[in-house]
Amino acid sequence: MKKAKSGLVLAAAMFAMLPFGFTWAGVCQAPTAHSELELDGCTSGDTLILREVHFDTDSAKIKEISFDFLDQVSKELKENPTIKVAVQGHTDSIGAADYNMNLSQNRAESVRYYLVSAGVNPQQLVAQGFGLTEPLADNATSQGRAENRRVELKMVGTLVLSEPQPTNVYISTFHAVPMELVIPAGSQVTWTNYDEISHDISFDGVQGSRIWTKGWKGDTYSLQFDNPGTYSYRCNVHKDVNGRIVVKPAVEEYVTTESPIYPGQTTSSYEGKQTTQRVGS
User: Fold this and answer.
1) Is this model's pTM higher than 0.70 or not?
2) Domains of the chain
């Protein structure tokens, strides 16, 4: 968890509408147009009502007036990358139950999509629709129905992030193994050359480094990847030496590739051994 902010208070009227799962202790606070989201005091099961999220009538399209507010939410979630939340949609009782269930699910999906587009790790978010099944107020009044039409953010657990792992790509018989490597952000990748000729590696057209051979021992080139994205590389001379590094905020498993010691024959005798390990195992 990040360090708590100071000087942020929320009007007591907002809390009157919160469900029983809300934590009063700490600084677990729902955001408004004038105060930021606080997750530091939240625990699993706590629910925050996002009253500033608005949609077009009978639609899952988020109104533009909600964007600044959702940017606050995305900022806080990115600063708390281990918190896993459910974006939950709720409706009033006007209309058929199945229609409201679909509408609430689509609205939750729209909010999730917005947050992911703003840079939140998709693994932190799940979208759930509850339709008219969990009212907070009496649907017989217009005020009650307005309270029931809402989006909530529920704390559902802790996301286990991947620890960056040193990992390897080896080049042999003019191929890179593996050709695609998926790693968590912050990982360092090392290329080892076992060919009898050097390779000039470039990333997305930007020159990286020449990887020389050293008497069959294999020269190396290392690069750290801090930002999520896909990074393609290739040898400027040998087109079959190519691949891509896929960097994610977190991964469920990581693959380590190890090359055997040169057996004294030719590079064709190299076989890369890959070990797959689940995160947390």
Assistant:
1) no
2) 12-158 (3.30.1330.60), 167-278 (2.60.40.420)
In the structure encoding, which two tokens stand for residue 203, read together?
Answer: 């990333």
pLDDT, tens digit, 9 for 90 and up, residues 46-57: 899 999 999 999
100-104: average pLDDT: 96
Q: Quick check: 165 and 158 in contact, CB under 8 A? A: no
How far apart are alpha carbons 92 and 100 in whole angstroms?
8
Are the C-beta atoms of residues 270 and 194 closer than 8 Å to each other?
yes
pLDDT, mean over the chain: 76
Query: How high is the pLDDT of residue 131?
Result: 96
Show the tokens assigned to 72. Answer: 């606050």
Q: Are strands 242-248 and 229-235 parallel, antiparallel or unpaired?
A: antiparallel
CA-nearest of 154, 151, 96, 148 to 124 is 154
DSSP 32-88: BTTB--B-TT--TT-EEE-TT--B-TTS-PBPGGGHHHHHHHHHHHHHSTTEEEEEE
Please say whether the beta carbons of 92 and 51 come within 8 A: no
Nearest alpha-carbon partner for 150 in 72, 66, 80 = 66
Residue with tokens 């099944």: 133
Q: Residue type at 179?
A: M
